[in-house]
Specification:
The structure is a homodimer of 408-residue chains.
Chain A: E1 20-25, E2 37-42, E3 47-52, H1 60-69, E4 76-83, H2 89-107, E5 114-121, H3 129-141, H4 147-153, E6 162-170, E7 173-182, E8 195-200, H5 206-218, E9 235-240, H6 257-277, E10 285-293, H7 296-308, H8 310-317, H9 323-333, E11 343-346, E12 349-353, E13 356-357, H10 363-370, E14 374-380, E15 386-393, H11 397-403
Parallel strand pairs in A: 4-5, 8-9, 10-14
Antiparallel strand pairs in A: 1-2, 2-4, 3-9, 6-7, 7-8, 10-15, 11-12, 11-14, 12-13
Helix pairs in contact in A: 1-2, 2-3, 5-6, 7-9
């Protein structure tokens, strides 16, 4: 797989975080000879929050995580690539129990403190005995600074590992947040994300962490789309080890809440953008801004109608400033919009205004913007004050090639 | 443009219908040297019914038709290809008035008895003076059997002209129904259709004809999708000249209503399938059947989630019996579905049952079905008794190529 032309220059330097150790292993689940298992081991005080796919057919690990999340505590995270353990029936459920038990035995914790995530092919039984040979050794050799290896082990069709890190002062403590993610296709909003795991050494109670996360995904992972398709396995987990040493944040009114939330929001947006930049076959990173909508919610729907339109996405792939297709997508969204007040910009170039072509616009200027790697489309729909922004990529022949021959 | 491999063997022989005459002309709207205008002239008794795009940004001709449809009478239909007269503001509205006046003058009727449809590029002003030189002559030379020419004149990215005809006995009269359509991309359901025009010599009052049409589109044009995108210009008009000579049907309880409706339903489905078979870049015609849903409406939503999924459509293009992506699409639909009762068939081969892979299924059999031109996907979602069927095509590199370079 060729590196996405939209990839960041390099993987950021993710520092060690007190309270978490990481290891990877090659369990031969699907890809021979590459690491396909990632184990994270957390200290005892670690709290956890999560959001998951809204698919009506969630994978067995998603069911598992949802069931144990209520405990609010995590001691381990086991992730595998190559097999999603989705649509695997009773055997799939058994596999999650066996996997959690293996990890619990290896590190000495309860099963319900073990979180699981799987990504890869749907419908193939996952053989949990594959983990037997590797989990114990992985737990033993886990180390604090294996973030790049961890990000690599969870990749499937990704062309680069995805990571982000932030430092922020929370009260009197210097706190670190690291995150890794995977995802390149089957990416759609309102369903959490693909797989993303965030760890901080901040101390924060689980319900407060959950509230922070629920809000954070709105304008990050829930505001991106590659193909409008939704995985059965989307999982975003945030772990707080508490090792930075302050008393835990137990209330969103705590003065330490806001700076931590701001840092988490930034990190989630960064990771979400990296997923879009690795969109299957993507050559353009596209920001879609909608203003003048009836509400933020309405703006989101219009923006997503644009971002998910195959005709808009192929036009962008063709570097064509085809604003007629933007009009089409706005119309299709079914949201309040005043056709005769509509205005559209490509970058800084206003191409349409008051419901018709802007007579003064320069086609050359618009075309120059379309040739860029990063495209900004702005639409004012003339119906109110709601605004929102989402991110997507173009739809290329490579997307079809990658997905027309994935299983074989 | 290469002929779609899914094209019918030939254009059917559409007989003359009493009460309508057709002509085409080359007005040079966009395509030099080809007929891009179609004029139909109807006898005085002709009633009309129509359904239109639900786009919030409809074209000027759609607005025009909706405004004059209430009259229930039609004397003429003027259609052009090459320019959609959509998102053209005040000038677009003026263009419809001028066009209707030109036709009304040429054939001696009222403007509000003239119906208009335009298809092509969005956002370019349509110069109605282009019609001036051609409408009078076209009206003069219109003839009853120019159906193939008419079907050709309304094409844009279509690779073949689309037509269908039915004969049915209605009361004591032998009635004919002819229809033509165009459409290859920007095709999505619940928004009427692309352009389709149907004429019958049956006699039927406009409100009864409208009721018949409203029901007829449900399982034909509203049950197809190529790319999930919705045109600003979708228009389906049915004209009944009454020339077959019976007293008009004025009530849906009339014993002649049902046979006529059945014939219209068949014809609409035939035309709708022809549109899918000409889907941009399509190589496979796909029928998606959903059973066991909570209701027909729910079954439709699940079927459409499958039919619109880029991952399902690219898998079909790759001849890959990737039923995991069907599970994904069912889950994404958000409708009631019992994951652990789900069953999936490709053709006659059941590949999944009771929420997991069917242990006895033959991959070779499933693969053989995927190599066919016509694919049938059946999904039972185990939640109730609702069922529905929709039709779509695969998503190929050619779709991207066609739409990545349309304007230039």
């Amino acid at each position: 797989m060729k590196l996405s032309p939209l990839a960041p220059a390099s993987f950021p330097d993710l520092p060690a975080i007190d309270g978490v150790r990481l290891a990877t292993a090659a369990a031969g689940i699907k890809y021979p000879g590459r690491a396909d298992v990632m184990l994270a081991v957390f200290d005892k005080a670690t709290t956890v929050a999560g959001v998951f796919t809204r698919s009506r057919c969630p994978s067995a690990p998603v069911d598992w995580c949802k069931a144990v999340l209520g405990g609010g505590r995590a001691r381990a995270l086991l992730v595998n690539s190559g097999n999603a353990n989705a649509f695997t029936g009773k055997r799939g459920r058994e596999a999650t129990k066996i996997s959690a038990a293996l990890v619990a035995d290896a590190i000495g914790c309860r099963k319900r403190e073990v979180f699981l995530a799987s990504t890869g092919v749907i419908g193939e039984p996952l053989d949990p005995s594959k983990f037997e040979g590797v989990v114990g050794a992985a737990a033993a050799r886990a180390e604090p600074d294996a973030w790049l290896d961890a990000a690599r082990a969870i990749m499937t069709t990704d062309t680069y590992p995805k990571g982000a890190t932030h430092r922020v002062t929370v009260g009197d403590a210097a706190v670190t947040i690291n995150g890794i993610a995977k995802g390149a296709g089957m990416i759609a909003p309102d369903m959490a994300t693909m797989l993303a795991f965030v760890v901080t050494d901040a101390a924060i109670d689980a319900p407060v962490l959950q509230a922070m996360l629920d809000r954070g995904v709105r304008d990050s992972f829930n505001a991106i789309t590659v193909d409008g398709d939704t995985s059965t396995s989307d999982t975003l987990l945030v772990f707080a080890t508490g090792a930075a040493g302050e008393t835990p944040i137990s209330d969103s009114g705590d003065r330490r809440f806001r700076p931590l939330r701001a840092a988490l929001d930034d990190l989630l947006r960064d990771l979400a953008h990296q997923v879009v930049r690795d969109g299957e076959g993507a050559r353009k990173f596209v920001e879609v801004r909608v203003t003048g909508a009836a509400s933020k919610r309405s703006a989101r729907r219009i923006a997503m109608a644009i971002a998910n339109s195959p005709l808009v996405k192929t036009a962008i792939a063709g570097e064509d400033a085809n604003w007629g297709r933007i009009v089409m997508a706005v119309g299709k969204a079914g949201e309040p919009a005043d056709r005769d007040k509509l205005a559209i910009w490509f970058g800084e170039t206003r191409v349409a205004v008051r419901g018709e072509r802007d007579r003064h616009y320069s086609e050359a200027e618009a075309a120059a913007h379309m040739r860029r790697r990063e495209i900004v489309i702005t639409v004012d729909v003339g119906a109110g004050k709601g605004r929102d922004t989402v991110w997507t990529c173009d739809l290329t022949k490579d997307y079809v090639a990658i997905n027309g021959d994935y299983r074989s």
